[in-house]
Specification:
Radius of gyration: 21 Å
Distance between the termini: 9 Å
Number of domains: 1
Strand content: 15-25%
Shape: globular
Largest sheet: 6 strands, mixed
């Protein structure tokens, strides 16, 4: 089945966009679990009305080899040093930070041999991710934080009712450019991103594909390590989602 426009007639008069958004993560996770090597598992995540926070603690980079913990001066045989009470100055900004209206649809892939270390995230963009600058910035910052911790990120965006391109927002956060992305960028697309070491430097790599209503979806690489990837075949997964929901 070619890509449908989920947000405009005739599709929107019969089906709600969130039916497909809610069903696709489980279909992707189920397929990946039949494909992933031993030691990896995928799970869907759908959070309605609240943005999923990045749990950096589960995949922090290890300290450098020459790192040593600071000495404890507060007890246990040492001489405690009296600490003056410090009070910060008044905040220079106080603004609304309530993102409860943001819907989050994703699939996460974990390395279960390393205490469920997050290695890949598939983000399915919702309308609320694109509806205002704060939400777009938060989404881009979340993806950038994942990439900074060597988690590969795939963004799937077929939200036709919003013109913003969140991949462009992500590139802005990372201070990077993609010559394959036109100006202005397409509103719907799919892109796989990862960070890897090239000649002792960390480089961003991306596989960007614009989406077209009425055309098949692409296959993207889902990176588990710097040298190991599995194919994320979006077209058959999208077709399976529509069939399971009895959408014609």
């Amino acid at each position: 089945m070619p890509l449908r426009d989920h947000f405009h007639p005739p599709f929107s008069t019969r089906y709600s966009w969130d039916v497909v958004h809610g069903g696709l993560p489980m279909v992707i996770a189920t397929h990946l679990n039949s494909l992933l090597p031993d030691g990896y598992m995928a799970g869907p995540g759908v959070h309605i009305g609240s943005f999923g926070e990045v749990d950096i603690g589960t995949h922090q980079e290890p300290p450098p080899p020459d790192w040593e913990p600071e000495a404890d001066t507060g007890g246990g045989g040492g001489t405690a040093v009296a600490q003056a009470v410090w009070a910060p100055t008044t905040a220079t900004l106080t603004a609304d930070a309530d993102w409860k209206g943001v819907d989050d649809y994703e699939v996460n892939v974990y390395d279960v041999t390393r205490s469920r270390e997050l290695v890949a995230a598939i983000e399915i963009v919702s309308p609320s991710n694109k509806d205002r600058p704060a939400h777009r910035s938060t989404f881009a910052t979340k993806c950038a934080a994942l990439l900074a911790n060597d988690v590969s990120v795939t963004v799937i965006d077929f939200v036709t009712e919003r013109e913003s391109n969140l991949y462009a927002e992500l590139l802005g956060v990372l201070n990077a450019t993609d010559p394959n992305r036109p100006t202005p960028p397409e509103p719907i697309y799919a892109v796989a991103c990862r960070r890897r070491r090239i000649k002792r430097k960390r480089k961003l790599e991306a596989w960007y594909h614009p989406l077209v209503i009425g055309q098949p979806l692409p296959t993207l690489p889902l990176w588990l390590t710097e040298t190991l990837a599995v194919p994320l075949e979006l077209e058959p997964l999208y077709e399976q989602t529509l069939r399971s929901l009895r959408i014609r």
